[in-house]
Amino acid sequence: MRHLIFYEVQTAAICPYRLLFFDKFFDPLSETDPFVYSNIYLFTRVKKNRFDLGKTRLINKRTLKTTIILGGKEYYDLTISFFDTIPMFKMLFKTRENFEDLLSDDDDYWKCEIDSENSSSDKIHFFLHAKTGNAIDFWLIPENIEMAINIENQLGFKNKPEVVYVGQSFQMSKRIKSHKTLHKAVSQLKDGEEIRLYFLTFKYGYGGHKDYFQMEGQVMDTWLSEFGMSKEFKSKISLVERFLIHFLKPIYNEQHVNSNIMNDSLVKTILTDNNIDVITLDFGVWGKSFEFWSPNQQLKTDCASFNFLKPDLGYQEGFVANEIE
Known about the structure:
The protein is α+β, with helices and mostly antiparallel strands and 325 residues long. 25% of the residues lie in helices and 31% in strands. It has helices at 23-30, 33-36, 82-85, 87-92, 96-102, 142-148, 151-155, 172-177, 180-187, 231-248, 265-271; strands spanning 3-16, 40-47, 49-51, 57-60, 63-70, 74-81, 110-114, 124-130, 135-140, 162-168, 193-208, 276-282, 303-307, 315-317. The protein has a 7-stranded mixed beta sheet, sandwiched between helices. Strands 3, 4, 5 and 6 form a 4-stranded antiparallel beta sheet that branches. Strands 7-8-9 form a 3-stranded antiparallel beta sheet. The longest helix has 18 residues, at 231-248.
């Protein structure tokens, strides 16, 4: 083997479509590194996830008891800690013990309450009132619970995101909010479904024979750094997008779905002309909310390789370096 490279998801930020135009959610999201450095986005179709507000109450200032309604017909009763589901608390407190100590039942400095007036089935607003009169507010959405708790194993909860479109942008906020395909996907949803957006960053990996390795030239021509605006960087983002589309075959993508990947201009320029024998694409991310899939994907896996020396084999599951002569 001469050279093998892989592009792997590094971070994945979530934005439910219903909150795309809710500034108190989207503005803070758009300032985070996973969003700022993302150039690949996915539109996915999931079951609608909502709170049953009639069955939602605070057990104490740290814990919420609620019922989640999935797809309009599946009901799941849950008791959750804010430490597990509110990112703010995990940033402020390094351990659960520190969090529970501050919000102890024996300490009446803080009081927590639900802001019923501004809460709804898709988002709940809370206030933490201090004795001094100051208050901290925070929001909880059903996706927070879905991401934080392994409720599939506990309750049989299943809501894996089906990828319906893959795209790229270097002006993400502007592009997403005016995306025609996004609004088309929303308009064609069935009852009990909704669209969820993911913003992805990728990292780069290399493997190869020591006799062929050169830090300059062939290897560097395939390198994908954390962030860039150069023509070369954009070409590599296009390459990642192309392989995601070609492998997943999302229903709303039109280009690259059924193309001959060996004849693709970017594949030739970046990969085969640089003696890359294998490319591996890994879009697997930890957590049930990130188990991306498509009914049209060529293999039931989230890590697949394409061997340019054996193109007739098509995609192969996982890494195939050991199979190259």
